[in-house]
Write the structure tokens for this entry.
Amino acid sequence: MRILGLDYGSGTVGVAISDPLGLTAQALETIVRQREGKLRQTLARIDEICKEYQVEKIVVGLPLNMNDEPGERARKAEEFGSLVHKRTGLPVIMWDERLTTVAADEILDEMNIHGRHNRKAVIDQIAAGFILQEWLDNCGHKSAAETQDSRGRERTTDTDKG
């Protein structure tokens, strides 16, 4: 069972994929688009990846504010998640992604990857890997019922993770 991880940004979408057992996440690619609202090709590429890797579930990063409140970026990520679900027909889980880009930036520092162009090419896919790995570590081994809240939605915040 493969699971796809997505880090939605204004100009890019970082993509990560789990191993077939759903234990580890690996950065896969960064999808680049000209403008935030131009999602047709992005959604088509995500659909291709899902078919190629036989993905069964998608985890999309939800950028909550540090006070647990959703802001404008979270709203846009939720809209994106809805579009991904409509395009692929797969379950989409919104997962708290706070500080994943900061963590990815630190990894690039440790790897001595410098220069804006070099970092931009990989930072989003590394962040997607962090999002997916955190979900796998917290919920990947649990049944769907164990990871849902009382309304049947996937849990998304640290306080909800069981």
Observations:
- The beta strands are 2-8, 12-18, 25-32, 55-62, 92-96.
- The first strand starts at residue 2 and ends at 8.
